[in-house]
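Tutorial, part two.
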Amino acid sequence: MTLPQLKKITMRLLVAFLFITNIIFAQQTIYDTISNGGIDRSFILYVPANYSAVTPAPLLFNFHGYTSNAYQQMFYGDFRSIADTAGFIIVHPNGTLDFNNNTHFNVWGSSSVDDVAFTEDLIDSISATYNIDLSRVYSVGMSNGGYMSYHLACLLNSKIAAVASVTGTMSYNTFNNCNPLHPTPILQIHGTLDGTVPFSGSSVGLSINAVMNYWTNYNNCSSSGVTTFLPNLVLTDGSTVTEILYDSGNCQSSTKLLRVEGGGHTWPGTNFPLVGTNYDINASLEVWKFLSVHSLNSLNCNVNNPVDFLSAPPLKIKIYPNPANNYIIVESENYIDVNYTIKSLLGQVVKSGSLKGNYTEINFSDIIPGIYIVKIQNKSFKIIKAN
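Running the prediction step on this input gives:
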């Protein structure tokens, strides 16, 4: 072998080595922990190959299901190839052990773990190391992770732009404490034959229709959804997908349901073909397409209401008694002159009117027993009408 040939081979090897080294350092999977609530909480961070410290990157939380873990979710509900193209960072948090010794995210109020504070600390920790676009922080999750995404939409709304849930729903604990500050785009993907988180609801979670109604009403979307039957691309998976979109919400927000007809408790499009998995759509791709167009900046547009959803001081209002019988009282710390609406969980307006002054009594005697949403500007209150 001549010296020129040897130099050429050496140069090719060097170029190859530098190319591979660049990929290794640019595309990273990082296993790390932070201390929160007196315990070490672990997570897996995925930094895409095209991440640049010069350009702020969106951040996507990808929460695992009950008994699962971050490593499994990273592969099962996989966003990594999408992130490599779209340039967002993915964080896969690990839950803690509950009283049954199973990993979980505390959305039911069944343990002392504060997963909202853990999530907030993760945002702060990751943004201290990477250039994160804090107006584009999103959350998605599988099953219990879907519950967790709704939990953040309600209780960490000032930092979460939009959320998606795959086979999850809202817990009653989340629902009863929900207080979003801005219109919040919601995507739900759910199988009609889900035996773990039933489409029709259960003792620990709302029905999917009730979830859709709540967020459609809160976002002030069109009450009649646009239904589209998506192409049945894979005839052998035993399921099809119906898209129901409630659009035209405040600040271009929307509420969207991808209803998997005949689908089970699975992640559509996953590389792990469990029984009941749909392959007409790729859930990861659908989630990113839906979430990525929204930001906290765009959701702070003050449409139809002169309220700054992100920076205005909140209305200091309390409503009582709850449960109620013949009346409810709306009491404000300051003088107010605003409108209110009361809706059922099905989205039907049962009463509306105006609030003036510091104290208003609203007749509740003509309302049938059930759970209702009282909406006053950008605040929503859950009221139970007793028997």
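The chain has two domains: 3-183+197-221, 317-385. In part three we will examine how such features are distributed along the chain.
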